[in-house]
Amino acid sequence: MRLLIAEDDAIIADGLYRTLRGNGYAVDRAANGVDADTALMANTYDLLILDLGLPKLSGLEVLKRLRARGSVLPVLILTALDGTSDRVRGLDLGADDYMVKPFELPELEARVRALTRRSSGTVPMVQCGALSYDQVGRSAILNGQVLDLSARELGLLEVLLSRSGRLVSKDQLVDHLCGWGEEVSHNAIEVYVHRLRKKLEPGGVRIATVRGLGYCLEKPQEIRNT
Ligand code: CA
User: Fold this and answer.
1) CA–CA dist 188, 178 (Å, integer)
2) What is the pLDDT along the chain (226 residues), one digit of tens a residue?
3) How far, in Å, from the CA of 207 to the mean position of ligand 1?
4) Which one-letter DSSP state was computed for residue 147?
5) Ligand 1 centre from 118 Cα, in Å?
6) Domain 125-222 belongs to what topology?
7) What is the pTM of this model?
8) Fold topology of 2-120
9) For residue 144, is it left (φ>0), alpha (ψ between -120 and 50) or beta?
10) What is the pLDDT of residue 225?
11) What is the rounded distance in angstroms from the CA atom of residue 183 to the CA atom of residue 41?
12) Which of 169, 182, 192, 212 has the fewest beta carbons closer than 10 A?
């Protein structure tokens, strides 16, 4: 999952960035409306967190342009306490949710989970053989045990699960796991895959390597009635 934070207040942006990175999301940042607009045209995101009071181009204008391009990207707007009319306009322009500053980070995390879940249009529980993945609580259960996964491993598992049975290239993984300025090599991806693979192995859930191309989370063999 890749998110964009458009926020010019460095303290708020840093807090959001650290929290969401810690949750295993790939996060990009834009400190003004023009950069946000450019990033939205250049990249594919799963969620936009948009401050309305942005320099160069207002958050409302960024949102208006995004929707004018036909994008259905979920948008969570951040507004000042006294910005009621802006909030209403934002919702009218197609924002999906809003939060009033100052806000509590756990509440923001919950809303981000809800919005990204809605965007992927998926059921709360995903199953792959002996593995169950709870998309609401973002926890993986294997053979009845909750798996202890790092943020990177969790992000990796989500990407592989969302495309289970299909090939995912290393470049796609880097795209989904890393924000701008984060140097993550293909070698590092191999390490994350290796660690996740070891944790999934006891349940017979396999991540196959497709030489030179990428990885594939294998769908469990269907039982044939012959
Ligand atoms: Ca601002």
Assistant:
1) 11
2) 899 999 999 999 999 999 999 988 999 999 999 999 999 999 889 999 999 999 999 999 999 999 999 898 999 999 886 778 888 888 888 899 999 988 899 999 999 988 887 766 656 778 888 898 887 778 899 988 899 999 889 989 998 988 888 899 988 888 888 877 777 788 889 999 999 999 999 988 999 998 888 999 987 664 344 4
3) 43
4) -
5) 27
6) Arc Repressor Mutant, subunit A (1.10.10)
7) 0.72
8) Rossmann fold (3.40.50)
9) left
10) 41
11) 22
12) 212
48 CA to middle of ligand 1, Å? 15
- Phi/psi of residue 52, nearest 5 degrees: -80, -30
What one-letter code names the amino acid at 89?
Answer: R
Q: Ligand 1 centroid to 75 CA: how many Å?
A: 16
φ, ψ at 89 (rounded to 5°): -60, -40
8 A C-beta contact, residue 117 and residue 158: no
Distances in whole angstroms, Cα of residue 162 to Cα of each of 1, 94, 156, 216: 10, 26, 10, 11
Report how far ligand 1's centroid is from the alpha carbon of 86 (Å).
Answer: 13
98 CA distance to ligand 1 middle (Å): 14
At 93 the three-state DSSP class reads coil
Phi–psi pair at 173, nearest 5 degrees: -65, -45
Cis peptide before 102 (omega within 30 of 0): yes
